[in-house]
């Protein structure tokens, strides 16, 4: 418990923190161009993809994709099966290194985002298949969302000290806060694996939010949950953006919920971005309609454009 608890106020110890305006640029494998928003003085996007291409053998999963996601936005990335959605999310979270292009997290430009330092760059993600510790309580699962902030060696030195106790108290308070915010307080002591699937998804959201990420990546957050759970979860996602100002990027097949929830939607088809705009525009975009009608999956055409 102490180990998972020892993290919070050690913002001081974070190796690198997200500090727009003051952050140094790191790890640009090649010299990064100054992005247009910086040159113009416009507010910088929280996430930017610049000409990102990725291929597997001869197969192009992403082709020259640009994407700007503004602070506080809920941005969905949709597209038919195999369009490149997961590839895009995996590039943003550093699991894949693009063949070409850059990913910008605030002021930091990367050819390959360093997965191990994702949290320190203010990014959290959830996974399509739940990645909870099923044998731990809801509370302990949420605490784990803070476990990245302190180095283990330092943490050992701290055990038993007043600082350690203070950090643990702060972590527990942060976990309680987000658990309450997501209406999970009644089941805080329950073993996560015993909860209905929709609630487990909510616990995963709580764990991703506890460190107050600037950017939250949601990988098919509504897959496998019931209709009413979907509505609840969507409301929680919206509340998280409203309360914490979290910028959210989600990939999702349920177009109905995407249309309701998103401020903007980017559409991929065969690895190319074919549209990007507010839901009303996407709904009537002919290239999008053609892309969806070109595949014979009912769940995708349901949204039907
Ligand atoms: N690790 C990999 N190795 C080889 N090919 C891959 C790999 N990951 C993705 N691909 C291929 O890249 C293309 C894009 O796949 P991706 O999973 O990104 O699409 P998607 O839009 O997320 O699809 P889905 O909706 O079915 O999950 C597909 O043709 C896929 O087969």
Offer a concise description of the structure.
With 305 residues, the chain is α/β, with parallel strands linked by helices.
Question: What does this protein structure show overall?
Answer:
It is a single chain. The chain has one domain (2-18, 70-94, 115-301): P-loop containing nucleotide triphosphate hydrolases (Rossmann fold, 3-Layer(aba) Sandwich). Mean pLDDT is 82; it is low at 1-35 and 296-305. Helix content is 35%, strand content 20%. With 305 residues, the chain is α/β, with parallel strands linked by helices. The longest helix is centred in the middle third of the chain and has 20 residues, at 162-181. Involved in beta-(1-->2)glucan export. Transmembrane domains (TMD) form a pore in the inner membrane and the ATP-binding domain (NBD) is responsible for energy generation.
Widest sheet: strand ordering: 6-7-8-3-9-10
Please give the CATH architecture: 3-Layer(aba) Sandwich
Q: What share of residues is helical?
A: 25-40%
CATH C-level class: Alpha Beta
Query: What gyration radius follows from the Cα positions, in whole Å?
Result: 20 Å
Largest sheet: 6 strands, mixed
Shape: globular
Structural class: alpha/beta
- Give the name of the CATH superfamily: P-loop containing nucleotide triphosphate hydrolases
- The third-level CATH topology is Rossmann fold
Count of spatially separate domains: 1
Q: Write down how many β-strands occur, each being a DSSP E stretch of 2 or more residues.
A: 10
User: Uncertain runs with pLDDT below 50, 5 residues or more?
Assistant: 1-35, 296-305
Strand content: 15-25%
Mean pLDDT: 82
List bound small molecules: adenosine-5'-triphosphate
* Helix-strand string: HHEEEHEEEHHHHEHEHEEHHH
Q: Count of DSSP helices?
A: 12
Alpha-carbon distance between the termini?
49 Å
């Amino acid at each position: 418990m102490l180990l998972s608890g020892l993290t919070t106020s050690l913002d001081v110890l974070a190796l690198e923190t997200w500090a727009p305006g003051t952050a140094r640029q790191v790890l640009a494998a090649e010299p990064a161009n100054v992005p247009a928003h910086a040159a113009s003085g416009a507010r910088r996007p929280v996430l930017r993809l610049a000409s990102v291409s990725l291929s597997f053998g001869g197969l192009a999963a992403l082709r020259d994709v640009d994407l700007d996601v503004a602070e506080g936005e809920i941005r969905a990335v949709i597209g038919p099966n195999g369009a490149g959605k997961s590839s895009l999310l995996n590039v943003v979270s550093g699991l894949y290194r693009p063949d070409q292009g850059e990913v910008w997290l605030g002021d930091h430009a990367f050819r390959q985002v360093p997965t191990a330092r994702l949290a320190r760059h203010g990014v959290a993600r959830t996974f399509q298949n739940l990645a909870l510790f099923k044998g731990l309580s809801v509370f302990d699962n949420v605490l784990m969302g803070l476990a990245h902030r302190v180095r283990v060696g330092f943490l050992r030195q701290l055990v038993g000290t007043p600082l350690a106790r203070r950090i643990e108290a702060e972590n527990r308070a942060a976990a309680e806060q987000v658990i309450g915010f997501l209406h999970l307080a009644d089941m805080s002591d329950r073993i996560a694996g015993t909860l209905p699937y929709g609630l487990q998804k909510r616990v995963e959201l709580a764990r991703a939010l506890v460190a107050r990420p600037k950017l939250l990546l949601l990988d098919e957050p509504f897959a496998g949950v019931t209709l009413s759970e979907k509505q609840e979860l969507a409301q929680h996602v919206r509340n998280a953006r409203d309360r914490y100002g979290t910028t959210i990027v989600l990939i999702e097949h349920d177009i109905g919920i995407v249309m309701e929830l998103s401020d903007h939607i980017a559409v991929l088809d065969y690895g190319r971005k074919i549209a990007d705009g507010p839901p009303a525009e996407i709904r009537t975009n002919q290239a999008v309609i053609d892309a969806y009608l070109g595949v014979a999956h009912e769940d995708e055409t349901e949204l039907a454009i």
